[in-house]
């Protein structure tokens, strides 16, 4: 019985190792290839396995795409939680905004994946629920940040506006023509700070009526 349990454990560890190899390969492909051109065959070549083997670990392309995206989301949430705990109340929203913008400037593949899921993908219920849970967790973090910053009224609505505003900045200016990368980053930072100030400046009573 003991040897049987040891074998089962090793088999499970081997399966997880192969799963990680596939996810690592998917990350590299997403980082270097337009989203619409990514497919299981391309990821399989990058991982050094057959396309058929991927389906042993991921039942379809959508599941692999979602799992690749969700793989790093926890790190981002931890970064924001740390920011909330360390930032002063009057600086917490700006700190979150700059961290969010910097993360997706530097992790371009993840931003493209997130944008694709939000704008174009028709997901099955299981994948959709996984992404919705992730988004709700993000809104919870933003809401706590607004509360620490002294916001009142409908802080959930503020969190949604904050999320939409930051993504709008990224979509509008990540590929700002004729500007150097650092110029673009500074411009996006300025817009992020402006967004925070505008949201803080709204009377909580007016937001609660929306």
Question: Could you explain how this protein is built, in words?
Answer:
The structure is a single chain. Helix content is 78%, strand content 0%. With 210 residues, the chain is mainly α. Helix 4 (61-70) runs parallel beside helix 8, helix 5 (73-86) packs parallel to helix 8 (125-148) and helix 8 packs across helix 9 (155-173). It starts with a helix and ends with a helix.
User: How far apart lie the N and C ends?
Assistant: 63 Å
* Structural class label: mainly alpha
| Total number of helices | 11
Strand content: under 5%
What is the percent of helical residues?
over 70%
Annotation keywords:
single chain, globular, Arc Repressor Mutant, subunit A, Tetracycline Repressor, domain 2, disordered C terminus, 210 residues, mainly alpha
